[in-house]
Amino acid sequence: MSVIIKEVTTKKELWKWVKFPNKLYKTNEFFVPFLGIDEFATFSADQNPAYEFCETKLLLAYRDGKIVGRIAGLINHAYNKKWGKNALRFTRFDFIDDYEVSSRLFGEIEAWGRQRGFEEIMGPIGFTDLDHEGMLVEGFDELNMSITFYNHPYYLEHMERLGLVKDIDWIEFRIQVPEKPDAKIERIANRIMEKNGYQVVLYNDRKVLQKEAYEAFEVIDVAFSKLYGTVPLTPGVVKSMIDQYIPLVELDYICSVKDKDGKIIAFGALMPSIAKALKRSNGKLFPLGLYRLMRALKGKNDTLEMLFVGVEPEYQSQGVPAIIMNALVRNLIKNGVRFCETGPMLETNKNVHSMWGTFEKRQHRRRRCYIKKLEAEEQV
């Protein structure tokens, strides 16, 4: 039976769209599901403030009454305005290993883009740089992170057949936490702080962190502003991130650096890995999902995921990243953390790569953003 494509228009259909990957990867030991209620909120215009500058079109593919694929087309007006582009994005592109399915889904989004006058399509990439991005092209036999996509290797062949080509890659490292702080880095960090009057802030009060997080996100916004695909973080997006993460983060793994006037110039946030907890609960909070998540976040956990480290551009070459890393490493060692997994880092971002120069590490995953030119529709 041929493939039927349906647009998602109801909450019931959105839940089916959200849950499809859990069924597709049911027997895959490396797939980590998203938390279902978070993903539902991400694609609900009344819950995600990014819809202030974005539009989406969500599709499901059916065969014999069963869902066999999904995709989201995404128009990011803020991205196009900032970078002077005329691009359509796609994200959450999942499908069985059947080219009829993938081509029908992608073809519908391409047609939508051409109708709207777009010149190219890029992805997988989401609403902002804080959303999931990049298709896995290396590291299929590694347990995925909670903040990234997982996909089957056969996706890559489908991308090629669909006419998509590499635009840029992100790489990820699994870093081994040392048994003791690096004396050289510690000396450098202390010397820089003494010379410039910088202060390290390690938070022990969640209310203080919540208040200062708004200023910290201003630093993140500026620090990331020149990176691929980024858009300005609106107050609504920032508030949403703060409301989502502040109640969950372990304070030992949050750090900022302030200048002599008390202004935040750098900010770093790591989080205990919830990948195994999400996998065991299949992305559900109940009946045991919430307990498992809180146990992973608050109990003993030897692996952390790096959410972000941002340094004001004018301070990036002045050793400030060393101050952040030195402060956080001390707490990692104290709490028995053995590994830290970086989020996706652009392969071209040598500044952030250099932060891990003295650590024992291995690059264990690579992700790709694809791009394709869209030909204008022929006029009849």
Word description of this protein:
With 380 residues, the protein is α+β, with helices and mostly antiparallel strands. Helix content is 35%, strand content 26%. The protein contains twelve helices and 14 strands. Strands 1, 2, 3, 4, 5, 6, 7, 8, 9, 10, 11, 12, 13 and 14 form a 14-stranded mixed beta sheet that branches. Helix 4 (99-115) links the parallel strand 4 and strand 5. The longest helix is centred in the middle third of the chain and has 19 residues, at 206-224. The mean pLDDT is 93.
Strand-helix topology:
Layout: E1 4-7, H1 11-24, H2 36-42, E2 54-63, E3 66-76, H3 77-83, E4 87-95, H4 99-115, E5 120-123, E6 135-138, H5 154-161, E7 165-176, H6 183-196, E8 199-202, H7 206-224, H8 235-245, E9 254-258, E10 264-272, H9 275-281, H10 289-298, E11 303-311, H11 320-334, E12 339-341, E13 345-346, H12 350-353, E14 361-373
Parallel strand pairs: 4-5, 11-12
Antiparallel strand pairs: 1-2, 2-3, 3-4, 5-14, 6-14, 7-12, 7-13, 7-14, 8-9, 9-10, 10-11
Helix pairs in contact: 6-11, 7-8, 9-10
Quick gist of this model?
The chain has 380 residues and is of the alpha+beta class.
Main sheet: strands, sense, barrel: 14 strands, mixed
Secondary structure tally, helices: 12
How many runs of DSSP E, i.e. beta strands? 14
Name the overall outline. globular
- End-to-end distance, in Å? 31 Å
Strand content: 25-35%
Instruction: Report helical residue fraction.
Output: 25-40%
Helix/strand-derived category reads alpha+beta
pLDDT < 50 stretches: none
